[in-house]
Design a protein that fits this description.
This protein is α+β, with helices and mostly antiparallel strands. Helix content is 31%, strand content 24%. The strands form three sheets. Strands 4-3-5-6-7-8-9-10 form an eight-stranded mixed β-sheet, sandwiched between helices. Strands 12-11-13-15-14 form a five-stranded mixed β-sheet, sandwiched between helices.
């Protein structure tokens, strides 16, 4: 894969994640939208739909041969998909519950996956995330490091923390209730007792905290591929680890653990007992 192919897609991912995120501000902390409950109970708003529509249009204009997978509008094959090894994976608003509650801890996520062998776990090579309500973001591409920014300021290298003991670590998650939904409430209890303290600063913001060294562990018992795709390269390029509950590096397991790497094995020692058992 020529480096220019990856770099061009990274540049687009950076720009459109921020632009789409800013579109959501037209509705954030207003009463200008209705909330629809999807089949799985998760909320949907016009802001989600408009942001994803924008993302899809920008990608199709720049790389019509690439495929697209998005939370709101499913999968679209590229015009010459057999010639492209890239798939864009989109989550226009990760943390819609925060969004509809006026809480700024939600993000717009753009990822690029490179095709691998059919038997290989799915992995991303590009991740770009923007938090519109905070005007901060982070992005990474494989082998090029992770970079965080505030507003229009210069990006700075994002690095995970050097805390090596789980007893000194801070754990975050999206919702405690989801552990019970997959019969893993005891895993949460064991982890929360093992760490220094835990909080629900979750969704993609939790992974941002890991990648920038603010906390050591973010865990999700249940998530979709668009929740994970942008996160994987960001965590890994910041020096951490992003895996499923068995310790395998992948974005399609339906579960995830993102850490600074130093506490990862201690976490997996607990989660592997129920890895993949939904």
């Amino acid at each position: 894969m020529p480096d220019s192919n990856l770099q061009k897609r990274l540049e687009l991912a950076k720009v459109i994640a921020k632009s789409a995120g800013q579109l959501t501000l037209n509705y954030f902390q207003t009463d200008r939208f209705d909330v629809i409950k999807k089949g799985d109970g998760s909320p949907l708003t016009i802001a989600d739909q408009e942001a994803e529509t924008f993302l899809r249009g920008a990608i199709q204009d720049a790389f019509p041969e690439d495929s697209i997978v998005g939370e709101e509008f499913g999968e679209t094959q590229g015009q010459n998909s057999e010639q492209s090894e890239f798939t864009w994976i989109l989550d226009p608003i990760d943390g819609t519950k925060s969004f509809i509650s006026g809480v700024p801890l939600y993000g717009t996520m753009v990822a690029v996956e490179k095709a691998t062998d059919e038997n290989s776990a799915r992995q991303s090579v590009i991740g770009s995330v923007y938090f519109p309500g905070l005007d901060i973001g982070i992005y990474a591409s494989q082998g090029k490091g992770a970079w965080s920014f505030e507003g229009d300021g210069q990006p700075v290298a994002a690095k995970v923390s050097q805390t090596s003991s789980l007893a000194d670590a801070v754990m975050v998650t999206s919702e405690v209730e989801t552990f019970s939904e997959r019969s893993a409430a005891d895993i949460y209890q064991q982890l929360s007792q093992a760490v220094y303290f835990s909080r629900t600063w979750g969704d993609v913001y939790g992974y941002y905290l890991v990648a920038t060294g603010k906390v050591e562990l973010m865990i999700d018992p249940i998530l979709n591929i668009w929740d994970a795709a942008a996160v994987q390269p960001i965590i890994e390029e910041a020096g951490g680890r992003f895996t499923d509950w068995s310790g395998a590096s992948r974005i399609d397991a339906g579960e995830s653990v993102g850490t600074n790497g130093l506490v990862h094995d201690a976490v997996i020692a607990l989660t592997k007992k129920v890895a993949g058992k939904f």
